[in-house]
Input
Amino acid sequence: MTYKLTVMILCLLILTGCWSRRELNELLIVLGVGVDWKDGEYLMSFQVVNPSEISAQRRGGDRPPSTIYQGRGKTLFEAARSLTAEAPRKVYMGHLQLYVIGEELAKRGIKDFLDNSFRDNEMRMDFNIVVARGMLAENILKLYTPVEKLPSYSMQQSLQTSQKSWAPTVAMTLDETLNKLSGKGFELALTGIKLIGDTSIGDSKKNVEYFQPPSRFRYTGIAAFKEDKLIGWLDEQESKGYTDITNNLDSTSIEIACGEQKYMGIEVTSSEAKLKASVQNGKPVMNVSIRTEANIVSRQCRDIDLKDPQAIKRLEGESKQIIQSHVEAVVSRAMKMKSDIIGFGSQLGKDQPAYWKEVKDTWNDDMFLQTKVNYKIELFIRKTGTIGNSTMQ
Output
């Protein structure tokens, strides 16, 4: 009897309830955060959900699906707390999807305020981080978007889809970003986002009342950092080369000129990149191997016989040259910026640890620029489509 009573008492002590619970109606659910440097202070913008406007039971509400609350301060903590002067509830960051950094702030350095984010025990590590190119982050979050009511969700889905299907974008999470900033032998690179079209109407509901919204977001270019400061932007070709050489490429398209304003369309279906480092005569050597598989998806030039093995080999050769030109372009750009965004130093540390220990402190400004790079690009066309040579002339 005493034993049973003891067990019951212990169970009651364990079942003390959710002492730290917070009800949903007491919180502001944050999906997007924008951080800017404005007038000598941090400006934080929180995009929070209006639950009643996204409810399946309600249609055509008068309010927007989300609301922006802002705070200013000399530190991020002060800026975040200052918004409580107007926000009716405490913000909750557990569902954060997109973190937008203004370009001006990115140029000043991002390590300090990301460190502040890392210390929030409510924040998950899997949200994506992007840089607002040529504009304030707050403007990105104020955009009305079609299809998906919540702008942050729409932007996050577009980023992840474009990384898988297009190539000049990379969906970096907070966890990956912090690893880049704290590690040796590689530098950070983040995708850029900007508004295009008539940006003056983007924060109005009218923006989604057209077949094509007058104001839209678009991911464009990759922001290259040195240490924690934005130092330049990669163009589209360099961005494609970056995702390929860093093994982030799933699929993309290659266009091969085959006549006046005519192109053969090649779809990359898989790509695997490998780096191997060595040292020759006291200088680093990096061997870059990329193996790609592709399909033919468009045949505008009817004189190319897709049943001819030699024609396929020619197309493979031209496709390889395009891939190599993209990779060479990003390597050249990284060396000009003296920023190893590719990760050559990291690979050198794995393959030649004794040599890396000697050069790591001055890597970006010295031996990285003297690295000899050898390329081995392989591309195999596996399919030519279900109809091969089209009967249409």
